[in-house]
């Protein structure tokens, strides 16, 4: 895309977008899966959230470079597209430093390669780590579970519903409506320079995601997801009403609501779905489940991007009340179905200590922060 002016511009941009999109779809699933498998248990959530922190730092960098004072001009836009070569080249150079996941290798029965990978990751503690992994996974290779078997299996139905529900909550929250159309939203709010508001969303996104890195192993996944969804629901309602009423004062309220909306998203619903899904599945179906979750995420992303402009034309600013209603539903979904996975090892096939989650109609066990607080029990 950086060389789009050297040939048929539209064709080169479309080809470049296809390649970048395919890569983005792969890494959105593979990176959190890999990090979750190699990270120590006590740091699994924090390191998993770093994946999202890297993404939002890239978004902020693109927003800054896209300013008219930098590369956002008619002559410099190819350089803005070409700037993506730098992080891609850095990743390519650093990739040999990443060993294959020892957990994945051991689940496939490749003990020797798993030991070598652990030696690179844990050094002298590799043998102890290998023994712990063998005790967790068992001695035999894990059975492979494909997409069709995953969809047919009653055993995996509950965690699959939760995993896909988290991805739908992330996209149907309306967050990408804020990002994709932030300029028009801030113009409607009366902001003289909408680019300032756009950069503001990026800064808040980075700051709140960094806060999530700190909180995820302290507050837990479930609490952050619930607080994020409920906070976004309140901000969506305030944003819709403020844009509807208009005027300088309500314009400031709309700007504050949009920034708070992004902040609540980045604390929980942004980073958590990518690695919490991996924590709900044993090795056999984990890859297929996360692949399906990534497909659902990007498909729903496309639906929001395509549906928001006509919805905005039909409903005006009140479209954000629609997102608020969806967020309320997803908050209830989270409260009823999402178990707390902080500090728990990955499930294993047939492990009596990791039974399948309760059925949809059964009340969840008291293994979460909010439920323990409601009964005055210690988590």
Automatic annotation (TrEMBL):
This is Solute carrier family 2, facilitated glucose transporter member 4. Residues 364-379 have a biased composition (Basic and acidic residues). One of its GO terms (cellular component) is plasma membrane. It holds the Pfam family Sugar_tr. It is found in: Cell membrane; Cytoplasm, Perinuclear region. NCBIfam families: SP. It catalyses: D-glucose(out) = D-glucose(in). GO terms for molecular function: D-glucose transmembrane transporter activity. Insulin-regulated facilitative glucose transporter, which plays a key role in removal of glucose from circulation. Response to insulin is regulated by its intracellular localization: in the absence of insulin, it is efficiently retained intracellularly within storage compartments in muscle and fat cells. Upon insulin stimulation, translocates from these compartments to the cell surface where it transports glucose from the extracellular milieu into the cell. Signal peptide: none annotated. Belongs to the major facilitator superfamily. Sugar transporter (TC 2.A.1.1) family. Glucose transporter subfamily. Its main location: membrane. It is a multi-pass membrane protein. The keyword Transcription regulation does not apply. Residues 344-379 are annotated as: Disordered. The chain crosses the membrane at residues 12-35, 47-71, 160-183, 195-216, 223-243, 249-276, 288-308, 314-338. Keywords: Cell membrane, Cytoplasm, Lipoprotein, Membrane, Palmitate, Sugar transport, Transmembrane, Transmembrane helix, Transport, Ubl conjugation. Residues 1-342 form the Major facilitator superfamily (MFS) profile domain. InterPro entries: GLUT (IPR045263), MFS_dom (IPR020846), MFS_sugar_transport-like (IPR005828), MFS_trans_sf (IPR036259), Sugar/inositol_transpt (IPR003663), Sugar_transporter_CS (IPR005829). PROSITE patterns: MFS, SUGAR_TRANSPORT_1, SUGAR_TRANSPORT_2. One of its GO terms (biological process) is cellular response to insulin stimulus.
């Amino acid at each position: 895309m950086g060389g789009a002016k050297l040939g048929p511009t539209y064709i080169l941009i479309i080809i470049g977008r296809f390649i970048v999109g395919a890569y983005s779809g792969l890494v959105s699933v593979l990176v959190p899966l890999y990090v979750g498998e190699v990270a120590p248990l006590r740091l699994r959530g924090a390191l998993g959230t770093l994946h999202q922190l890297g993404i939002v730092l890239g978004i902020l960098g693109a927003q800054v470079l896209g300013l008219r004072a930098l590369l956002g001009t008619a002559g410099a836009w190819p350089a803005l597209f070409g700037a993506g070569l730098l992080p891609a080249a850095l990743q390519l150079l650093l990739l040999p430093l990443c060993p294959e996941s020892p957990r994945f290798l051991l689940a496939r029965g490749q003990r020797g390669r798993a030991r070598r990978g652990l030696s690179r990751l844990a050094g002298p503690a590799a043998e102890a780590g290998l023994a712990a992994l063998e005790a967790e996974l068992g001695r035999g290779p894990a059975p492979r579970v494909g997409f069709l078997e995953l969809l047919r299996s009653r055993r995996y139905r509950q965690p699959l519903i939760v995993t896909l529900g988290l991805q739908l909550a992330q996209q149907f929250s309306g967050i990408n409506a804020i990002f994709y159309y932030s300029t028009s939203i801030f113009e409607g709010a009366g902001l003289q320079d909408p680019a300032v508001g756009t950069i503001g969303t990026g800064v808040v996104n980075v700051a709140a995601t960094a806060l999530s890195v700190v909180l995820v192993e302290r507050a837990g996944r479930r609490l952050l997801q619930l607080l994020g969804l409920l906070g976004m629901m309140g901000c969506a309602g305030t944003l819709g009403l403020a844009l509807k009423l208009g005027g300088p004062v309500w314009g400031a309220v709309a700007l504050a609501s949009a920034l708070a909306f992004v902040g609540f998203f980045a604390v929980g619903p942004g980073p958590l779905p990518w690695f919490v899904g991996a924590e709900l599945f044993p090795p056999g179906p984990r890859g297929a489940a996360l692949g399906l979750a990534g497909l659902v995420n990007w498909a729903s992303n496309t639906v929001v991007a395509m549906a928001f402009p006509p919805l905005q034309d039909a409903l005006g600013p009140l479209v954000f009340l629609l997102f608020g209603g969806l967020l309320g539903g997803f908050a209830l979904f989270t409260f009823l179905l999402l178990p707390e996975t902080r500090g728990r090892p990955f499930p294993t096939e047939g492990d009596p200590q990791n039974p399948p989650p309760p059925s949809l109609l059964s009340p969840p066990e008291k293994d979460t922060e909010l439920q323990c607080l409601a009964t005055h029990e210690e988590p």
